[in-house]
Design a protein that fits this description.
alpha/beta, two-stranded antiparallel ribbon, 14 helices
Length: 419
Amino acid sequence: MSNARRESPPRVVVTGIGAVTPIGQGKQGLWDGVRRGVSAVRRVTCFDPAPFRSQIAAEIPDFEPEQWVPARRARRMDRYSLLSLAAARQAVEDACLKPTRNGAERVGVAIGSALGGVSFAEDEHERFLVRRRLRDVSPYLALAVFGGAGPSNIAIALGIHGPTLGNANSCASGTIAIGEAFELIRSGRADVMLAGGAEAPLAPLTFGAFDLIRALSTRNDDPAHASRPFDRDRDGMVMGEGAAILVVEALDHALARDAPIYAELVGYGTSNDAYHMVEPRPDGRDAARAMTLTLEQAGWRPEDVDYINAHGSSTPKNEISEPLAIKRALGEAAYDVPVSGTKGLHAHALGASGAIEAAIVAQIFERDWLPPTTNLEHADSDLAYIKGEGLNRRVDRILSNSFGFGGINGVLAFQRFTP
């Protein structure tokens, strides 16, 4: 590593996008789903939801693992790892990246997931209780349940030998994975990182645990309008599944291989409310601090922000604290910045949500269109929310927020790439 690299952190750009979500697969499929504006929330079909107060979720309707993973290998992996690997293969293909030829020891993986392979463990535990024979349990259980299974499977499949990280920082996991990948590249410890999040939480006990703490919407008679970020009639989040991975790369490395560049990643901030395991700090102080840290690293003033992709979980208390955090961080500029969240479409895929939203944000710079907040009819704060059909507008600087259980906050700053 040269002295120049140590003295001046490399610029970091997004060169590839992969996504497997309820509203579409791949870079284009995800964007088409956002533009279509149709919620993917339906009554749960992958198990019987009748025992629960909430009976709705956003499932991926057409995921075929064998399209991305050889059938024999797919049988050894749980859904969390399969989603991770599918999104990673898409991202690598989109970036025209060949890890084994582009310095595999300088390529890494960072994947966030709130629950990892817990739902697979739930299925195997049920099988054990019914049959009472250990030999009837999948021999791959121990290798599937831990959070690091997703990034490890990606590394093995793609021949990646660099840093391999898994985090379980609740609903901020995907955002934090991208942020930590950004820092690894800036520190000179990697040239390329496959970074994002994956979540496969739709199993009875896992789903029921969120139902038990009354975190989920009970708008079972109107699923398409159940996830309604920032709307005064919201009654809880809607659970979803999915994965999204970005190829984030040192600019000089990207230019040397003539890679496509979607956006530049320029800031990352994280903090903890240290307040409550489920509820955000009411005044938004530490969420605002994460935003401020991100602005400082990006070298932006509050008035420089052109758009905020909000966490917007559709929970009663997040949508009180997040607007306050935005106002704390941006001051008077907060009232002029367009704000929206996309969970009304793809629901809340827990640790994957921030990565799915980052995959949407990274495409905005070439599309010049800002997505609306689906199902937002009556906002209960005075921010400049985008409603209806979205907003045709060129923007150069975007903040993307993710806030999770345990008071974990993560924020990313993206800007339009200029040579």
